Amino acid sequence: HLRDDLACDLHVVHLDHRLRGAEAAAEAAFVAETAACLNLPCTVEAVDVRALALERNLNLHAAGRLARYRLLARVALTIGAQAVATAHHADDQAETVLLHLVRGAGVAGLRGMRPVVAWEEWRTFAGDPSLQADHLRPRLIRPLLDVPRARIEAYCTERGLTPRRDPSNADRRYLRTRIRQDVLPVLTALNPQIATALGRTAADCAEVADFLEQELDRAWLTLVVARANRIVFDGRRWRDLPPALQHAALRRAYALLGGSDTLGRDDVVRACDAVGRGVGKRIELPGGV
């Protein structure tokens, strides 16, 4: 087993979203039984994701993601884990890049999912300010992000493993499903290695996004002149910034003031225009910011 090669302790975590009744409960039992057969500790919990979606004004996909990361973060802190691993693979990454592209994302969105995410960032995925880590800083890792789905399925076939499949992944009400079923097959016909190609695009965009973050860190020290319950930019220094850094600064300020991580480009441009005009210009952004 890989766990022996890496000399690491594993803990299995599974969440029942309470969206598919007995079928989902059977999957949770399957996970618990499999973990027991492998002598692995296991945490299985259930969350009413539909109720969470209504409470947070989210769609079901976003609410499910919130619930999963909240559970993963809580368990990681409880057991003292150094890392949390998810099974996202290369095809998932390709879908994510295309999903963001269709929605008009910039460089930060086109970087897709990253193979390693620091605790300080991924803890925000859980949307729970009470999650405090003291000395622990468990990373979020995605070790299969470069591995195509076909290779994973071949591995299961070779070893006589029968994976459980979530039928909700075929629900065409979701844009991601339509991208998986309609868009990716067309792109694969044009380039059989499309998942790998999109993965490279994501990696390139990640490098650019990381560079912008580093430049913004340096500029932020003199750009922000007041922090309290609001963020005030120095007008002269703001005007000296290139547009890419102005947009990045605006997004950071929005997030620090309680906004989400999905501020659209049109809102960013409007807000940057307001900052550039100075006193007397006021706009409302999503989330009451």
From TrEMBL:
CDD domains: TilS_N. Keywords: ATP-binding, Ligase, Nucleotide-binding, tRNA processing. The keyword ATP-binding applies. One of its GO terms (biological process) is tRNA processing. GO terms for molecular function: ATP binding; tRNA(Ile)-lysidine synthase activity. It catalyses: cytidine(34) in tRNA(Ile2) + L-lysine + ATP = lysidine(34) in tRNA(Ile2) + AMP + diphosphate + H(+). Pfam families: ATP_bind_3. Its EC number is 6.3.4.19. Residues 4-181 form the tRNA(Ile)-lysidine/2-thiocytidine synthase N-terminal domain. It is an enzyme of class 6 (ligase). This is tRNA(Ile)-lysidine synthetase. It comes from Candidatus Thermofonsia Clade 3 bacterium. The gene is tilS.
